[in-house]
Amino acid sequence: MGTTQLDQQQPEPKHWHLKTVLSAALDTEFAVGQALPNERELAARFGVARATLRQALDQLELEGRLQRRRGVGTTVAPPRVGVDVSPRHHTWPGGPGDTWITTDCVCVPPPAAVARLLETAPDAPVETVRRSLVAQGQTVAEELLYVPPAALPPVGDRGAPHGAERGHGVLARLRLLEPGEQDRAIELGSATAEQARRLDRLPGSPVLVVTTRYVAAGRPVAAAVATYRADTCRLTFGNQPAFPFSAS
Amino acid sequence: MGTTQLDQQQPEPKHWHLKTVLSAALDTEFAVGQALPNERELAARFGVARATLRQALDQLELEGRLQRRRGVGTTVAPPRVGVDVSPRHHTWPGGPGDTWITTDCVCVPPPAAVARLLETAPDAPVETVRRSLVAQGQTVAEELLYVPPAALPPVGDRGAPHGAERGHGVLARLRLLEPGEQDRAIELGSATAEQARRLDRLPGSPVLVVTTRYVAAGRPVAAAVATYRADTCRLTFGNQPAFPFSAS
DNA sequence: CAGTGGTCTAGACCACACC
DNA sequence: GTGTGGTCTAGACCACTGA
User: Fold this and answer.
1) Domain A81-246 has what CATH class?
2) What is the pTM of this model?
3) Where are the alpha helices (DSSP H) in A9-92?
4) DSSP secondary-structure letter at B80?
5) pLDDT tens by residue, B25-57
6) Is the CB of B225 under 7 A from strand D?
7) Chain C bases closer than 7 A to any CB of the protein
8) Orientation of helix A39-46 relative to helix A50-62, angle to 10°
9) What are phi and psi of B21, to 5 degrees?
10) Domain A14-76 has what CATH class?
11) Which of A17, A82, A164, A205 has its CA 20 to 30 A from that of B30?
């Protein structure tokens, strides 16, 4: 990063030019995991205010190039991890090959949007299973799976009153049903305070929200809302789940 | 938006609390398309600096709740547009039901990442077709489709030297091949300056990058990199391409 | 032209990690 | 403690839109 000053002739925003310069430096002069100089030093080195430098770093972090941790520093991020999210039709979550970890389960009224998706009454309680996905030593996603009790086959023993135990029970009962189709959507969202804590990020961090509706016998029987860390994940489909690509 | 001041007792960031308050106000007191007060007025009304207010607005814009246009103002955004991106195996781009508009085509060496995907030499020129997708009167996505000339069936007339004509020719020749599987990945990116201009956004705006590799007879024959406006698009899969969901 | 959002500055203080 | 990134302020000027 030999550059010390940047002189622009074009009315191109400083933070944009800065981002370009830093991006090139990351490619040529830094290794994955290596620490950058601190923000105050970088700002001084490029002759800009710290806020301007931070705009550039924000961009690079959004693109998954950098990793910033309060009290620690800024390091070069490893390539994004590929996570397979192909809708495998005619299967239920928690089946073979599913590496999500069930962490909790309660039976409460879901968010309004979920109730609409499940076509249940807005205040009707549904089984709410929380699961998380760990890849390369890091929690990269969290999922809430919603199942109306009415959709599940009745059993004598309802299992544990709450917690992971109960979650396993719900998933097991779900697998007794004949699976059908899935509708899925992906959009950009931002992490809630609690999600951010569990994903080791700051509130409002960008996440990829994957919403799935499970259908059996023509009726919705479950809905899942999974939030993936947008900075560290690449969602993949198809046979070769992780083919390499770094955009831009 | 009756709130004039906000007093926090928790050490919750101001911009976060502000975002929550504004979000609730958008739900209850504003209609789609309605203009918000300008930033200086809003900041004064909530007793914060304009930069802090802008942090909150940035978030809401990222979530697709707001639409900001320089020189004009800030308005409440309509719900995101659902765009079907299911990999329809055994089909080529430009086939029936494909509503993308071919705008340009040149034959040049592709970015290094694309060459790697296509398993061609880094400096080998490939047909590069640019297409754009319009939904609800707005360009919501742009795609670059890369096809190595060697993969296409040879023809006597190579068509126009460049432009949309040439692009149509490339797509037509592609459809003569036996289609195979597709590998697809989705990740968060940021718009280049040119993309941003064509998508009517600012440089660095968040986009959903959909990368597709088309395989025929076990070999990669084409690659596509599509960038969707993350603020206005929801990518959908499955039979019912647009089912409603608004997260958070 | 006036009004909007976008950029930028030079500070200050806070929350957190690590020693 | 010290050093890091995160938040916040109170200004200033610029680029753009539309009357």
Assistant:
1) alpha beta
2) 0.91
3) 14-29, 39-46, 50-62
4) P
5) 999 999 999 999 999 999 999 999 999 999 999
6) no
7) 3-12, 14-18
8) 110
9) -60, -45
10) mainly alpha
11) A205
